[in-house]
Amino acid sequence: MTAVAGIDFDVAEGEIYAFLGPNGAGKTTTVRMLTTLLRPTGGSATVAGFDVVKEAHKVRSSIGVALQEAALDPLMTGEELMVLSATLHGIPSVEAKRRAASLLERVGLTRAAKRRVGTYSGGMRRRLDLGMALVHEPRVLFLDEPTTGLDPLSRRAIWDEVRALNRDGTTVFLTTQYLEEADVLANRIGIIANGAMAAEDTPQRLKDNVGNPHLEIRLAEGEAEQAREIVCRFGECMHAENGNIAVSLKNGAADVAPIVRALDEAGLLVESLDLIQPTLDDVFLATTGQTLEGADTDPAAEPA
Questions:
Q1: Which of 82, 129, 171, 200 has the fewest Cβ atoms within 10 Å of its own Cβ atom?
Q2: What are phi and psi of 136, to 5 degrees?
Q3: What angle, rounded to 10 degrees, do the helices at 78-88 and 93-106 form?
Q4: What is the pLDDT of residues 11-24, one digit of tens each?
Q5: CB-based contacts of 194: which residues, under 8 Å, 6+ apart?
C-alpha cells in the first residue's frame, strides 16, 4: 500500500510552515522521511540543502526534532538531559554546559534545571524537549504537535518561543491538530489528504478561496420574512439557525452598512449583527471532507 504519493512542496528558508492533515493522510510518514527516520521508497527530498537519503547524516546535523511524545529519562534532571543532548551532538563539555544553561533559561526552566524530569509538568517536559532540539543550533526545526494537551497559557508560551526562534532565522516545520495554532504561527500551510497535497497557500488566501464572509442578522420576532426579502437583494442568502438571517457578502464588511440602512428604512428592528469570516476549519473541511480531530478542543492538561 502506498502511504504518500504526489507530494510536492517547498519550504522557504526562514519561514514557519504548518503541515496539516486528517489521521491516516500520510502526514507522519512524510515527517519521518524528512527527518531521516524512514527511508523513502521513491521520489526525492532535500532538507537544508541535503538529500535525505544520500546525505542523511548532514540532514540530521542540520535539523532539530521535537516529537509529540518525547523520550525523556524521568530520573535525570533537566540540566543533565540538556548536557547529554549537547554531548551526543559532539559539542565539547565546557560548551555543552554553557549551551545547556542558556537554553534552559530560554525555555524558562532555569529554576527547575536540577529537578528530576519525572517531577515536571507536561508543559515543562515539552519546553525541555524543545530546548534539547535546539542545542546544536539547527537550521531547520521540526515540531510535531508541540502543544497537544497543554493548557492555554503553556500553549502561548510555546508559540512565543517558536516566533522568537523564527525571528532569529530558524526555519520551522510544524504539524499540529489545532487549526488556530497554524493560523497564528504559519507563513504558509500545506494540507495533505489521502497521501497527496490537497491545498497549499498562506492562511488568509486559503480562507479567501473557501468563500466570502457572511453576515448573520437577528431581528425582532415576526419580522424575519420581510427582512429576508430585503437582505437577499444584497447577496446569496444562506441557511441560518434560530430564526436568524444569513447572507454571503462579496465585499465583506463594506456591504454591511447598506443592508443595515435598508432594514432601517423598512422600519425593521435589528437586534444583533455578526460578520463571520471563513476559518481554517472551513478550509480543512472543504479540502479534505473531514474536520481535524482536536481542532475545536481546548487543551486541558497540567499548567507548565
A1: 200
A2: -100, 15
A3: 130
A4: 999 999 999 988 87
A5: 25, 26
Give CA–CA dist 164/118, Å, rounded: 28
Which cell is 208 given?
479567501
Query: Distance of alpha carbon 27 from its chain centroid, rounded?
Result: 13
Model confidence over 139-177: pLDDT tens digits? 999 998 888 888 888 888 889 999 999 999 999 999 998
C-alpha cell recorded at residue 32: 519521518
Extents of the domains making up the chain: 16-207, 212-277
Q: Which three cell numbers stand for residue 56?
A: 542523511
What's CA 25's distance to the chain center, in Å? 16
Top-tier CATH class for 16-207: alpha beta
**180: its cell numbers:** 488556530
C-alpha torsion sign, points 284, 154, 125, 97: positive
pTM of the model: 0.81
The rounded distance, in Å, linking the Cα atoms of 234 and 79 is 63
DSSP state of 47: E
CATH of domain 212-277: 3.30.70
How distant is the alpha carbon of residue 221 from its chain centre? 42
